[in-house]
Amino acid sequence: MTSIETPTENPTRPAIARVQGLKVHFASKKGPVHAVDGVDFDIADGEMLGLVGETGCGKSVTGRAFLGLIPQPPARIAGGRILFRPRRREDTSEDTPEFRPCPTCKGADIVCATCNGSGYDTLDLLAVKPRTMRAIRGRRIAMIFQDPGKALNPILTIGDQLAEVFLQHASADLLADIGGTGDMGGLAAGAVGRAARQESGRLDGILSRVPPVRGHLRRLRAALEDRIAAALAETQISNPRRVIRSYPHELSGGMRQRVMIAQALACDPDLIIADEPTTALDVTIQAKIMELIKMLQEKRKTSVLYISHDLSLVRRTCDRVVVMYAGRVAEVGGVREVFAAPRHPYTRGLLDAIPRSGETRGVLASIPGTVPELVSPPPGCRFADRCVHVMPECTRVNPTLQPLTPDQSVSCFLAHPPAPGAAHKEPELQET
């Protein structure tokens, strides 16, 4: 049995998810690429956590690992766990047997220190069965992708694509909306679901002519359209009924991204993975989209893992930040603490490279050197060859993430000198 304790970097909120020693390798002709190599961080309940780093550092691979979206092969989960504790909710029809009750409170509606009141035991997202992962995707954990032009199906209307989310994960709620239960309601829900996926056949045509089913179908379609329109309106789309009947190519980039946000929030997930959701947008629209995500996150008290390379957006929208470099975590802490007093040389280099209004510097600072080869990564600190503060132990011993203050942890010997003769040892994952 696994457990999630209170995160060390944010002791005031319980953790809804914890990444422990995550390792993801990709096969190549030269050997396995250590894309993610021992990543550890927590996501607190109701917080917006930024995951930053340059291209190729492993941040998107880390985010996709939550939902089992890493293609295997060529990838391979080489180690670690992603622990997730679902929130308590009234409708449990989508839950599978792997959604076990908390061993302490047995799922009772009480304040429990073990499960933080969720009533659930912890799930390891890297070990759950495919059926359980299908129940988690979209309903418990949702994802906002980088490019909505590629994520949205070009041959289906926006309404059809959002309908599939509701029918897959909220069919019980839809039937409750129309007061439909029993066999007739189930037949109607199945027929509408197949219609949304453009799989309607002869049987559905016959069913639609049966008066009781026809009545359920009519009410179910109306309830479904109302839910879709409400979801689109929540993302500040001015004419949701028109957008429902539109195809993706008929919408602007910003509008398509709002549709993606509505799709992610449709079933009120516990956690959203936002993988650079503004990369494909104009600069003028990026800030508006991030303000919208932040507003909806605070309104729904949803946890968000915001993956980005834009430090200015992370600073404005996130509560805490994780800085990754070459497949490892360099620094973790509150946004104010990390941006005001970065303790890892790589974090300092990133922040020094940001242009600031009012300054008249001719040339922006840059980090010398290049990212190390991840096929045969060097021993010790991955940043050692580029660091101006490098010490002999940096090239021999891998610095582990250690707390510096209650709000900040860093993987650097400048902050945590190693003991004489220390050698790196991989931390063991403890079962409770």
UniProtKB/TrEMBL annotation:
Some GO term, biological process aspect, for this entry: which one?
A: peptide transport
Write down the superkingdom of origin.
Bacteria
Which molecular-function annotation in GO is an example for this chain?
Answer: ATP hydrolysis activity
What is the name of the protein in this document?
A: Oligopeptide transport ATP-binding protein OppD
- What gene, per UniProt, encodes this protein? oppD_2
Membership in a protein family: Belongs to the ABC transporter superfamily.
Matches recorded under Pfam families: ABC_tran (PF00005), oligo_HPY (PF08352)
Ordered alphabetically, the record's keywords are:
ATP-binding, Cell membrane, Membrane, Nucleotide-binding, Transport
Q: How does it sit in the membrane?
A: Peripheral membrane protein
Q: Which SUPFAM superfamilies match?
A: P-loop containing nucleoside triphosphate hydrolases
Q: Which GO terms describe its cellular component?
A: plasma membrane
Cellular compartment(s): Cell inner membrane
| Keyword set includes Disulfide bond | no
Q: Please list the residue ranges annotated as the ABC transporter domain.
A: 19-351
Organism listed in the record:
Roseisalinus antarcticus
Predominant location:
membrane
